[in-house]
Automatic annotation (TrEMBL):
<dbReference type="InterPro" id="IPR002937">
    <property type="entry name" value="Amino_oxidase"/>
</dbReference>
<protein>
    <submittedName>
        <fullName>Protoporphyrinogen oxidase</fullName>
    </submittedName>
</protein>
<feature type="domain" description="Amine oxidase">
    <location>
        <begin position="11"/>
        <end position="424"/>
    </location>
</feature>
<dbReference type="Pfam" id="PF01593">
    <property type="entry name" value="Amino_oxidase"/>
</dbReference>
<dbReference type="GO" id="GO:0016491">
    <property type="term" value="F:oxidoreductase activity"/>
</dbReference>
<dbReference type="InterPro" id="IPR050464">
    <property type="entry name" value="Zeta_carotene_desat/Oxidored"/>
</dbReference>
<dbReference type="InterPro" id="IPR036188">
    <property type="entry name" value="FAD/NAD-bd_sf"/>
</dbReference>
């Protein structure tokens, strides 16, 4: 059987290969980089492994948890019980399991009106958690009611620049003035749903299991998906052998939308949809110190608007000496072209204003996600239908990735599973028609 060609070895690409293998279908993954995992990779540096992006998962995610079970990965570590947000120049706690005292402190920081808005917003997200996704109708209703303007225009200023910015920065690397309510509702539905953990020893083990026995061609950049008479005909590649073409009749692209749009000519309505998707760049700095840096019950800090550091947290609850600094948001984007040592200095300087660092660095790793994190688009449900319809117009082509079902590892696996199902359904339909 001819292999399916997959573009990209991030979690969407690895997941796609895995779901194909379950159906007995071979695949070849073309990956431009030298490692698997993409934006959720775990990079070896000296005697440390650094998680440079996605690592936390929810016990409520069906596909991710099914794979953990299949791979016999059973050792997990709990995620932080909450966040501290810099508001009015102090650290205000936002606990996932709420307490009256916590609520009162938060209410005094965001005001009574803001507190009511926040309570109503979270209640809606929690009550409808199972229906808030890009495959049910509810998110479309949210889009119709709310997506006429950005998040900041819907809520009090203190709420939008405080607790709600937490969602936009951590999950979208963007400001509330740059994202739309439907996406925030999607994020919030996951907040407090199930329990949140990370894999002991790192997310790399998950990728290693997915990658096992797969044919991954590292250092292979796909530059074009070739089509002929509306069918996929091949891939134009650049690898160690230079530029060349490989014949292919079935291709699943799993690269981000901002890469995919350059690989193939879509009908106009598909181009409009893919162009509407926004990505926001960020840098992730892992620093290990020789003494604890987080103290006094603080494990995770969300910084104020205008700070170059969006968010930072202890890598695990029990590692207060290992800090993940995330340079995200508008102010961070202005400095991302600075050299690594400057980014580290700026991150530490910002952090020290809230918590002094009385420790020395022992390991540093700087990762730049210059392609960015997906901020979706207003009224995305309709755009997604157009995008999928435009891809369907090229037979043998499918897409998976962070821009279709939510940009979490579960969203990526869902998109991979659905792409495989669509590809197989279309192949069967074509062979029956012939
Ligand atoms: C800082 C950060 C923290 C995050 N935290 C979490 C979290 O805690 N939990 C969670 O669930 N999610 C988290 N996410 C989101 C999650 O990591 C991403 O949604 C997910 O990793 C995206 O995977 P992907 O396979 O769709 O894309 P990518 O990981 O981007 O994979 C695409 C792959 O394609 C390759 N590629 C690109 N162009 C080409 C080409 N032309 N030819 C061949 N190969 C190509 C790339 O090198 C890459 O390996 C986080 C993301 C970031 C950035």
């Amino acid at each position: 059987m001819d292999p399916v060609h997959i573009i990209g070895a991030g979690i969407s690409g690895l997941g796609t290969a895995h779901y194909l293998a379950k159906q007995g279908i071979p695949s070849i993954i073309h990956e431009v980089g030298s490692y698997a995992g993409g934006r959720a990779a775990c990079i070896k540096s000296g005697d440390h492994s650094f998680e440079i992006g996605g690592k936390n998962f929810s016990s409520a995610w069906p596909r991710f948890n099914a794979l953990l079970e299949e791979f016999n990965l059973t050792e997990f570590e709990d995620q932080h019980p909450g966040f501290h947000i810099v508001m009015n120049d102090t650290l205000v706690a936002l606990q996932k399991s709420k307490t009256l005292a916590g609520d009162l402190r938060l209410a005094s920081a965001i005001g009574t009106r803001g507190a009511f808005q926040f309570r109503n917003f979270l209640a809606f997200a929690r009550q409808n958690a199972d229906k808030l996704n890009y495959t049910s109708g509810l998110i479309e209703q949210v889009e119709k009611t709310w997506d006429h303007t950005t998040i900041d225009n819907h809520f009090t200023k203190k709420l939008a620049t405080g607790p709600l910015r937490l969602f936009s920065i951590i999950m979208g690397a963007a400001e509330p003035s740059e994202l739309y309510p439907s996406l925030m509702m999607l994020f919030a539905s996951g907040f407090g749903k199930g329990s949140h953990h990370a894999i002991a020893g790192g997310i790399g083990q998950f990728h290693d299991n997915l990658a096992a026995e797969k044919d991954i061609r590292f250092g292979s950049r796909v530059t074009r998906i070739l089509t002929h008479n509306g069918h996929v005909a091949g891939l134009e590649l650049k690898d160690e052998n230079g530029a060349h073409v490989v014949p292919a009749s079935r291709v699943i692209s799993t690269v981000p939308a901002n890469v995919f749009k350059h690989l193939v000519e879509l009908p106009a309505y598909g181009r409009v949809a893919v162009e509407a998707l926004r990505y926001f760049p960020l840098a992730m700095i892992n620093v290990v110190y020789d003494a604890p840096v987080f103290k006094e019950g603080v494990h995770s800090i969300m910084f104020e608007p205008g700070a170059p550091l969006g968010h930072c947290s202890a890598n695990r609850l029990h590692t207060p000496h290992h800090v993940r600094y995330t340079l995200s948001g508008k102010a961070a984007r202005e400095i991302l072209d600075k050299p690594d040592h400057e980014l580290v200095r700026i991150a530490e300087e910002t952090f020290s204003k809230r918590m002094p660092i009385n420790a020395n660095r022992t390991h540093v790793h700087v990762a730049r996600h210059s392609g960015g994190i997906c901020g979706y688009a207003p009224h995305f449900t309709g755009l997604k239908k157009d995008l999928l319809r435009s891809v369907e117009s090229i037979s043998g082509l499918e897409i998976a990735g962070d821009y279709l079902e939510g940009h979490t590892m579960e969203g990526c696996l869902t998109s991979a599973d659905l792409a495989v199902s669509r590809l197989l359904a279309n192949t069967t339909e074509r062979s029956q028609a012939a």
